[in-house]
Amino acid sequence: MCTNYIPSARDHIASLPGLAPVALPVSELAWPAETYPGYAAPIVVAATQGGHAAQCVVARFGLVPERQATTVSRGTYNARSETVASKPSFRAAWTERRFALAPMQAFFEPCWEQAHLHGNRPTRWRLAQADGAPFAAAALHEHWTDPATGERVHSFSLLTVNADGHPLLGRMHRPGDEKRMLVIVPPMHHSAWLNATLAQAQTFMRTTPAEQLTGAPADVPRAQQQAWDF
Predict the structure, then answer these.
(1) How many CB atoms lie within 10 A of CB 209?
(2) pTM for this one?
(3) Which residue of 98, 101, 181, 206 is surrounded by the most CB atoms within 10 Å?
(4) 60 neighbors 73 (Cβ within 8 angstroms)
């Protein structure tokens, strides 16, 4: 699973391969340097009907299903590819093909390999592309309207696949737990993912080869240290 990542800079989003130019939000609209569930982050969605460019929007990390409460977003920041078509929280977004890209520079996972040296706590690892280039992960997005206030909430979830046995992601999380990893969309397939049929979307649900990734221990932001006590 992924609960924390570094969103891409605006210039990378504007020039995503296969989508350039991406229509960006107004310059005053921003997002945090690091994103956690409940935080805002940029996502790229397909062009609107009659539009000519993919759109960058800012949405809440943690999908809020239509007709559900906002508290649901705390448990819906990741969507399992194996159950996304049937799980009520994600079914509508998947079957209605609300596919998105989450541009990022790196993401973080807990590694327990040396937990015994750190008070039985994991080490926060930073994972990224081996060549240092920014990348984009497959996501689902949804709109929900608060019936009490009329506020329209745009939210998203990152898709994940099983990573048991993966040379890098298989080292993350507690021993014995299932290993998961983000679905990273290759640059040449960005447009294909946003506009995929359901059958085509399933073909994207695969791991990224370990040689294309790099990982190393990272400092834990002071304000977020307790969030890594898994």
Answers:
(1) 11
(2) 0.89
(3) 101
(4) yes
